[in-house]
Amino acid sequence: MKILIITPFFPYARVAHASGKFIYEIIKGLSKKYDIHLFSRIEPYEMRFVKEMDAFCKDIILYKFKTPKDSNPFRSFLIILSYLIFAIKANRIIQNGNYDLVHVEHTQTGILLRKFKNTTMILLAHDVITKPAERRYSFSRGTFKRAIGWLKWQITKIIEVYISKKYDIILTLSQVDKDILLRLVPDIKISVMPFPFEVCDYQYNVERAEDITLFVGAINRDVNQDAVIYFYKEVFPFIRKEVPDVKFYIVGNNPPENIRSLAANDPNVIVTGYVESLTPYYQRATVFVSPILIGGGIIAKNLNAMANGLPVVTTSIGNEGIEAIPDREILIADTPEEFAKKVIILLNDKDIRSKIGKAGKRFVKEKFDLKQVIDKIDRVWESNKSDLH
């Protein structure tokens, strides 16, 4: 079967973006069974990883795009424009490629993507985009900001409905997202596809450092910047009163100036920027902090930490879709004081953090097993392939 995968994030083994890692595992796991063709946006620095994907893909077509570093309205315009150009190019590729099935990554990719009658179209919706838009509206303050937030939410809802109707089946990462989409578009076919993770069974005992809090994520994304700033300004001061030597590691791609300045002005904050491997940070850290205030889809960074046996403190939003048991497999806190309290407990009690870390790791292994997810993707592709070729 001839499969075309369309993704705005180039997949490779060490990709920093969680969705890029997801599609990498899908391609790697199913490339022996299917003829996989890949069309992807790619950042200039990622070109060195193309040969890595040649081993799994029959053909790779690339659209080069360099994401602007500065955060401003023009940057947002360029990113939106890149998605539009990407979709137009994808239409031509689908039209001329005679594919049995087209697998599309991310809802935003489908803005200008056409529905082709002779090709099965599947969307993997990493985020239900209406959910974060609604939350931004609910958090906005002031009449003008709330009016703008409400308008953006309504427009996002219209766009999501329009895009969703183009596909034969939509895959969501959680039951929560599935329920939201079904309320918006009751007549579409949806299946839940858990985010896959390989649990890290280290062959040696990991000796974690003391008093290190860790946050991981693409720091150029506003939701991650908001989380970092919230933790540093609202939560970290409470922790420092009890644990004066505590360190806050911020690990992730493209940190903007407002994040880099935290480290410049505070020796207890370390901002790494891009790293080749997250494993050493997951192994060394004491507690993983994930104060997500606005989220969509599933918070993969929390699962990644849990898969590494690192105890996680997050918000109720951060546990959506994951559905780990609070105080057993994960710790939940929705106020700064409560968040700090739970981090302090883990920093001060090795037995409790070991217990939470082991339970979280076991939970990920049981619910988000990589092989089970790959097998489910295989079944979805097989059952939905086009019979018109």
What does this structure look like?
The chain has 389 residues and is an alpha/beta fold. It has 13 helices and 13 strands. Strands 3-2-1-4-5-6-7 form a seven-stranded parallel β-sheet, sandwiched between helices. Helix 4 (130-139) packs antiparallel against helix 5, helix 7 (222-242) packs across helix 11 and helix 10 (300-307) packs across helix 12. The radius of gyration is 21 Å and the shape is globular. The N and C termini lie close together (10 Å).
Topology of this structure?
Layout: E1 2-7, H1 18-30, E2 35-42, H2 50-54, E3 59-64, H3 73-97, E4 101-105, E5 120-125, H4 130-139, H5 143-164, E6 169-172, H6 175-184, E7 190-192, E8 212-216, H7 222-242, E9 247-251, H8 257-265, E10 269-273, H9 279-284, E11 287-290, H10 300-307, E12 312-314, E13 331-332, H11 336-348, H12 350-367, H13 370-384
Helix pairs in contact: 1-13, 4-5, 7-11, 10-12
Which features characterize this protein?
7-stranded parallel beta sheet, 16% strand, alpha/beta, 389 residues, 6-stranded parallel beta sheet
The percent range for helix content is: 40-55%
Biggest sheet record: 7 strands, parallel
In the predicted model, the low-confidence regions spanning at least 5 consecutive residues are none
Largest beta sheet: what is the strand line-up? 3-2-1-4-5-6-7
Query: Strand fraction band?
Result: 15-25%
Global structural class:
alpha/beta
Series of H and E elements: EHEHEHEEHHEHEEHEHEHEHEEHHH
Question: Please, what is the average pLDDT?
Answer: 90
Number of strands: 13
Q: What coarse outline follows from CA principal-axis ratios?
A: globular
- Helical element count? 13
Cα gyration radius (Å): 21 Å
Distance between the termini: 10 Å
